[in-house]
Q: What sequence folds into this?
């Protein structure tokens, strides 16, 4: 019953928050905050109490739970936790708390329902990190989008001259659901191949590994998984939903999308696509890494061209996900370790930038860089934080992003030096767009007179905690590396065995 | 011929026939709206309660005309559940209608009786009589509010087109009879398997015409033109009845016809020969239905028209499982239909709760549900869940149904059909989400007041069923596994 609680806390907490709106408009916020703190405490407890020193090839799960579900189809309710999953769940809790705090003033109507949706999104994300039955995984993968859809469509913002929030949310859903169906077909294909080979009908991840099938079949099935994950990661050219969705979404939604939903895609590649299809992934690696380079450059260039702060940050995160993709398909221990750090650091720094964009909007009523500018002198505390997180985004040594990018490039160099060199363009672009963001919003001549309110205690605390975590990750990443070591070794081993 | 066991096997059909007479007598003696409605519900529930007895003697061939097996009993239960739901919706809906209100329940019981006979048919004669017994009362039900032009138009259109479809079907039966000299499904099967003295063209034409007649009832493309107008004009609870009872029985007889009539072989494999080409026809029909239904639904402003168009697509998805064939196809079809029935019941139920027979037009426009999230959180939740279920989002019954269909299609390697399903689902999301966005859009309005709670109760029951099937489908999957079509010659 232990790890099921990781799911139940946000699920039940959401219901409670929803009902407690009767007790006052702010009651749901406190309940939701308490739930996220509880999630962090709970998962940190497992982290401290767990032993992650098991080697490759042994039983891969730290804790697992299994209950019968749909016997007719060989589907079980099977949850399991490994080091990477645990790290991601801690991150989920932290960003959940950030989302609650960031929306404290922004969301003022139907707060109960808002926090219900927010908590259920978290529950879905946690489910993705825990599920090791492919059917169960797919259920969480799809279901977490529904509360996200409601967050955008009910509490989002219509963009002048762009899509309305309902249109943006619908676009997001159609992209991800259509790609999801392709993955469902791949899952079914894999299960049927397993039935053909062994006569056993099962959706269990552990059973389906090493399913014998022809290379062509494996390649096609792997593509189904890859496309579904690539839409959510996102990878150019499947990124069409990203900027519109961010622009229309409330701050909490943006934090959740970049911080969590995008990371579920990278996580899915690591947990499902590579271990299930090591040979096919090996064959596909060059294309995937090339797509990663395209994503880095394309995201970087487009980020620079944006005039809407949230769209700029969205494209910046797209560029970062290119590094993640390269690292995953480089598939050696160094690169995968780097991916894990980069996922965490990217989530924290991008979330912080979205929170800042939201705070600036609350004060100036604008996301448009044409009307912003010169804010450094007009508000306290927020601009220095912005400088800090922009520096993190551009990969300043000493902060988490640098460690991640460094490890990824180090690992990728061993696989393909040419592509790695091309990916380094991204580092230059990152400096350009991060400083451009700062320059357009905070420097230059002020567009209006009068001081604006600085960060209050709540706002400053959120940014402060995120900053501390980034510094810790940059200076002492070893605890996280220990957590993901066994996974990285296992994947690298599987892919290395598969390579000719 | 008729013995004790076959009488027991036909208990549901017998009890439902008795119910027709009881309802008719009640109306003749003294008009009492609530009494007639109540007796109808109790009678249908009693019919449902006879299924366990019947299942003890199944599979059972009862006369040359009927067969009772696991599949017929499953669909009997599903039809009765849908009929009870529709009756409860009608009860509230017709409360303040002008004129004679009681006869609508007589029509409903007659139609149910036809549907129950149809799922047991194993002979062209019983197929035809049962199909007409089911359909003819539907014209009356669709046009029941005949003072409203739209309702009357709906009934007339349905009547004329349905009559044309029926004659096409009879023509097909005549072709098959001319070739085989027999009218029972087994005889037709013998025609195709032996191939002795067979005029392949006439036999195929006969089968295609027969299927075309059934496809009309299922509103599969290209026989779908009537659907939008008929659903639109018919009163909402009648729409629920039409979309559930009327469809389930036809799918059941189609499955039996294909399986016993020699299109599928004994173990669900496709035999070579003339019957095989029919599967290609069905595959084309499936793709056309999926595309036509979803494209038609894209710009609808009326919820009833939207549900009608989406039903075209949904029966296209169902056809994918049928084309896939095999033992699993029957399970997949059963699962998909069950999900579709409860979802439709819930969706039409919400429209029905919002509308009243005396009000003129039903509250089924996008404008009518705008801001429903504030005016009635419960109905808004129910309608949203139903739409998500139609879209096939996990944790709803619709997803489990779609999962079964995809699994069946995948196992048979029907790549083109699966591609159509994926495209159709993406299109479908667009218009289902459009309605959901309207429901939760900020809009002012009076809170919804409901005449009395019976219809709301139906909606809640449908909502719970859709969620329970979505979360815990094992009992239903288990039941379907043990409800195969009997292989009796």
A:
């Amino acid at each position: 019953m232990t790890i099921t609680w990781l799911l139940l806390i946000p699920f039940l907490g959401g219901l409670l928050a929803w009902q407690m709106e009767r007790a006052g408009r702010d009651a749901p916020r406190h309940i939701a905050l308490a739930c996220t703190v509880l999630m962090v405490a709970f998962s940190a407890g497992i982290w401290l109490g767990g032993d992650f020193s098991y080697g490759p090839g042994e039983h891969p799960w730290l804790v697992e739970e299994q209950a019968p579900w749909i016997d007719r189809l060989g589907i079980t309710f099977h949850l399991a936790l490994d080091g990477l999953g645990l790290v991601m769940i801690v991150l989920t809790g932290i960003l959940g708390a950030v989302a609650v705090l960031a929306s404290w003033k922004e969301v003022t109507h139907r707060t109960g329902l808002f926090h219900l949706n927010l908590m259920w999104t978290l529950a879905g994300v946690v489910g993705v990190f825990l599920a090791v039955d492919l059917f169960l995984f797919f259920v969480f993968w799809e279901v977490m989008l529904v509360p996200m859809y409601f967050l955008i469509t009910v509490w989002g913002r219509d963009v002048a001259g762009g899509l309305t929030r309902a249109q943006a949310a619908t676009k997001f859903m159609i992209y991800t659901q259509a790609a999801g169906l392709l993955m469902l077909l791949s899952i079914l294909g894999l299960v049927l191949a397993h039935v053909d080979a062994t006569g056993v009908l099962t959706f269990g991840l552990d059973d389906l590994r090493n399913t014998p099938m022809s290379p062509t079949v494996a390649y096609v099935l792997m593509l189904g998984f890859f496309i579904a994950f690539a839409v959510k990661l996102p990878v150019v050219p499947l990124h069409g939903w990203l900027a519109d969705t961010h622009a229309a979404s409330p701050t909490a939604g943006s934090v959740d999308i970049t911080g969590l939903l995008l990371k579920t895609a990278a996580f899915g590649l690591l947990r499902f696509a590579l271990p299930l299809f090591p040979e096919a992934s090996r064959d596909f690696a060059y294309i995937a890494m090339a797509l990663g380079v395209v994503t880095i450059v394309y995201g970087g260039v487009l980020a620079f061209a944006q005039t809407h702060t949230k769209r700029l940050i969205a494209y910046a995160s797209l560029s970062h996900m290119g590094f993640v993709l390269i690292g995953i398909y480089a598939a050696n221990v160094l690169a995968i370790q780097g991916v894990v750090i980069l996922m965490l650091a990217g989530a924290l720094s991008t979330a912080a930038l979205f929170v800042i964009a939201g705070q600036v909007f609350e004060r100036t009523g604008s996301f448009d860089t044409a009307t912003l500018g010169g804010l450094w002198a007009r508000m306290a505390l927020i601009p220095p934080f912005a400088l800090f997180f922009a520096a993190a985004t551009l990969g300043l040594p000493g902060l988490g992003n640098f460690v991640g990018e460094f490890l990824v490039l180090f690992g990728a160099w061993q696989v393909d030096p040419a592509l790695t060199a091309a990916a380094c363009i991204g580092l230059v672009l990152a400096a350009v767009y991060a400083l451009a963001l700062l320059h357009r919003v905070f420097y230059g001549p002020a567009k209006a007179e009068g001081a604006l309110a600085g960060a209050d205690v709540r706002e400053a605390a959120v940014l402060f905690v995120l900053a501390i975590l980034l510094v810790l990750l940059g200076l002492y990443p070893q605890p996280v590396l220990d957590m993901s070591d066994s996974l990285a070794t296992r994947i690298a081993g599987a892919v290395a065995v598969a390579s000719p | 011929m008729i013995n004790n066991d076959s009488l027991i096997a036909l208990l549901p059909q017998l009890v439902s026939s008795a119910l027709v007479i009881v309802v008719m007598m009640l109306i003749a003696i003294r008009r009492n709206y609530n009494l007639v409605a109540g007796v109808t519900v109790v009678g249908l529930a009693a019919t449902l309660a006879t299924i366990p007895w019947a299942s003890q003697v199944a599979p059972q061939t009862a006369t040359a005309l009927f067969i009772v097996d696991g599949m017929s009993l499953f669909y009997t239960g599903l039809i009765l559940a849908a009929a009870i739901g529709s009756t409860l919706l009608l009860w509230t809906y017709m409360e303040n209608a002008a004129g004679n209100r009681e006869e609508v329940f007589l029509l409903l019981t007659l139609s149910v009786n036809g549907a129950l006979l149809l799922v047991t048919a194993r002979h062209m004669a019983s197929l035809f009589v049962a199909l007409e017994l089911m359909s003819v009362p539907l014209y009356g039900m669709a046009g029941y509010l005949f003072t409203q032009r739209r309702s009357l138009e709906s009934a007339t259109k349905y009547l004329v087109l349905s009559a044309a479809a029926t004659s096409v079907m009879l023509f097909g039966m005549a072709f098959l009879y001319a070739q085989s000299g027999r009218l029972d499904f087994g005889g037709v099967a013998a025609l195709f398997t032996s191939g002795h003295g067979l005029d392949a063209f006439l036999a195929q034409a006969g089968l295609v015409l027969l299927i075309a007649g059934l496809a009309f009832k299922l509103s599969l493309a290209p026989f779908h033109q009537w659907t939008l107008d008929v659903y639109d004009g018919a009163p909402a609870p009648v729409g629920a009845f039409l979309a559930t009872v009327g469809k389930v029985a036809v799918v059941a007889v189609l499955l039996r016809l294909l399986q016993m009539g020699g299109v599928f072989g004994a173990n669900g494999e496709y035999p070579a020969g003339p019957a095989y080409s029919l599967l290609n026809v069905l595959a084309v029909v499936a793709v056309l239905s999926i595309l036509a239904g979803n494209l038609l639904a894209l710009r609808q402003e009326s919820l009833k028209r939207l549900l009608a168009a989406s039903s075209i697509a949904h029966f296209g998805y169902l056809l994918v499982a049928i084309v896939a064939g095999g033992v699993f196809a029957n399970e997949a079809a059963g699962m998909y239909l069950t999900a579709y029935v409860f979802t439709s019941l819930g969706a039409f139920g919400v429209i029905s709760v919002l509308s009243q027979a005396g009000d003129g037009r039903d509250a089924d426009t996008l404008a009518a549900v705008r801001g429903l999230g504030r005016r009635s959180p419960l109905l808004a939740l129910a309608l949203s869940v139903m739409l998500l279920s139609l879209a096939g989002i996990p944790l709803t019954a619709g997803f489990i149904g779609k999962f079964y269909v995809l699994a069946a299609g995948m196992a048979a390697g029907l790549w083109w059909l699966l591609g159509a399903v994926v495209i159709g689902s993406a299109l479908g999301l667009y218009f289902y989400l459009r309605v959901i966005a309207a429901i939760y859009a900020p809009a002012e309005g009076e809170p919804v007041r409901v005449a009395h709670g019976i219809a709301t109760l139906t909606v809640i029951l449908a909502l719970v069923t859709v969620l329970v099937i979505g979360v815990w489908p094992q009992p239903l999957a288990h039941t379907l596994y043990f409800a195969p079509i009997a292989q009796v010659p």
Notes: Confidence is low (pLDDT under 50) at residues 265-269 of chain B.
